[in-house]
Amino acid sequence: MPLIKTYEKEEATGQLLELYEELIKVRGNVGNNAKLFSSSPELLRQQLDFIKYYATHETLSMALLASIRVCVSNQEQCRFCIDFNSALLINKADWTEEDIDSLRNNTYSKKLSKEENTLLKFVVDSVKDSHSVDEDIINELKMQGWSDKDMLDALNHGARMYATDILFNSFKIEDYQG
After folding, report:
1. What is the pLDDT of residues 130-161, one digit of tens each?
2. What gap in Å lies between CA 149 and CA 68, rounded to an integer?
3. Ranges of each domain in the chain
4. In CA terms, which of 9, 48, 54, 177 is 20 to 30 Å from 135?
5. Distance (Å, whole) CA 31 – CA 38
């Protein structure tokens, strides 16, 4: 049970109800991950905008973004986020449990391209130790075809996942039941 009050759809009014209805259109339900933000509808709005931005990203694939979330959450031991994003990879990208285990253990996946794996490692390493990033790493990413926008968007995605993990872990959001 969460340590802060979260609101079910039946309890929602005003802006929160509107956001829940929008989430139902996008995802089919209002999960515990969205309910975490229900005490602050403006934060939920920001989270929904964040999801929409990355859902249609022109160069960062769904599998890469979910892999970033799995690996960052694995570092932070956020069970909800690991399970949610693992289920997404299994159900939407045809990954197996073994593929997920390999990703979590190696920060690498044969399901991703060489370039995606390099960007994934950059994000996960940066979230762990931002001071470790140097010009050589950025130049390697550029040589592989990643733009400054791609690198910024990918690292922003990982950093936001790190922040979300802190919220979920601190407020004891229940495990994802996918």
Report:
1. 999 999 999 999 999 999 999 999 999 999 99
2. 16
3. 9-55, 62-171
4. 54
5. 11
11, 13, 19, 21: CA torsion to nearest 10: 70
62-171 CATH choice from 2.40.160.20, 1.20.1290.10, 3.30.465.10, 3.30.720.210: 1.20.1290.10
Token pair for 132: 């470790």
68, 86 Cβ separation under 8 angstroms: no
Q: Average pLDDT of the chain? A: 93
Inter-CA distances, 122 with 125, 132, 149, Å: 5, 10, 14
CA neighbor of 163 nearest in space, from 56, 81, 64: 81
Helix, strand and coil percent figures for the chain, each rounded to 5 = 75, 0, 25
* Rounded alpha-carbon distances, angstroms, from residue 48 to 41, 101, 111: 10, 28, 27
